[in-house]
Specification:
Elements lengths: L1 E7 L5 H10 L3 E3 L7 H10 L6 E5 L7 H5 L1 H10 L4 E7 L2 H11 L12 H11 L1 H5 L3 E4 L5 H17 L4 E8 L10 E4 L20 H8 L2 H23 L4 E8 L5 H13 L6 E5 L4
Parallel strand pairs: 1-3, 1-4, 2-3, 4-5, 6-8, 6-9, 7-8
Helix pairs in contact: 1-8, 5-6, 10-11
Length: 286
């Protein structure tokens, strides 16, 4: 039996994620009280042939905040039933969440006469921390389109169904657009020479040959690459040995257009030889 919990803050895309899971053949239940999750697992195990793949939406609409606080114990209880629970947690930065609710005119489930929208967003974040702490995968949807989110959900689920190798993403980003919330490691390479200040390179990206040639000639860039390559080459296998299912490594420059893109491309090319599940993503370019 495959069991996923889809959780996250309101406005982060949980409903869309559940729709993707449904399209992938999962039996989906939204807004299930956590206290009922073990009972649902017991019931489904008795009808495993009919419901071999299940996805459950759990969020701050739960009837009791104490259920959210004790989520880790609920997870252990399900483990004793012989079912492995995987948790996908969706999140977005607060300005994005507030903008989404403002644009759609929807009421935030935590808002009230006493709580403003921004206060409700912050309260929900605190309530969901027990689930976030034990999540197998965190997806930052701040910059994702619905198609990007579908691709990431499909990639995560198909990986979990294929083999036990760690699913690793190398991601470039720009600090001026915000730090990716789904990062396990963040490297700041803003100290490197910036092609932005060279007029003929300004409109190009780290995937263009002119930028590649410029950065490839810089001693600081070569040194930074070697340091990152050595660390990742030595330590990615350690995380894989620890049964880490997903890992996101983010490399940032100022705008996410030149230096970080170049570094991700170069690291991906060399590291993917020994890590075939390694993927690359350029947040600002997409």
């Amino acid at each position: 039996m495959e069991l996923y919990v889809i959780s996250g803050r309101s406005g982060s895309g949980k409903s869309s994620a559940l729709h993707v899971m449904e399209d992938l053949g999962y039996y989906c239940v939204d807004n299930l009280p956590i206290a009922l999750l073990p009972a649902l697992v017991e019931e489904i195990k008795q009808a495993s042939q009919s419901y071999s793949k299940v996805a459950v939406g759990i969020d701050a609409r739960n009837l009791s905040s104490s259920n959210l606080a004790s989520f880790s114990s609920t997870k252990r209880q399900i483990s004793t039933l012989g079912v492995e629970l995987s948790i996908i947690f969706l999140d977005a930065n607060e300005p994005t969440l507030i903008r989404r609710f403002s644009e759609t005119k929807r009421k935030h489930p935590m808002s009230s006469k006493e709580l403003s929208l921004s206060e409700a967003v912050e309260l929900e974040k605190k309530l969901l921390e027990p689930i976030l702490e034990v999540a197998n995968l965190v997806i930052d949807t701040s910059k994702l389109t619905i198609h990007d989110l579908r691709d990431q959900i499909r990639d995560a689920v198909s990986k979990d169904n294929s083999d036990s190798a760690t699913h690793i993403i190398l991601q470039s980003f720009g600090f001026k657009h915000g730090i990716p919330l789904d990062s396990d490691f963040i490297y700041d390479i803003r100290c490197l020479p910036n092609p932005h200040w060279i007029p003929e390179l300004r409109t190009l990206t780290g995937q263009d040959q002119a930028v590649i040639d410029f950065l490839g000639e810089q001693a600081m860039v070569k040194s930074m690459y070697q340091s990152l390559f050595t660390f990742l080459k030595d330590w990615i296998p350690k995380f894989e040995e620890n049964n880490r299912s997903h890992m996101t490594i983010s490399i940032g420059c100022t705008g996410g257009q030149h230096r970080s893109v170049y570094m991700v491309e170069k690291l991906w090319k060399t590291l993917s030889e020994n890590h075939p599940h390694l993927k690359k993503r350029h947040r600002e370019l997409s």
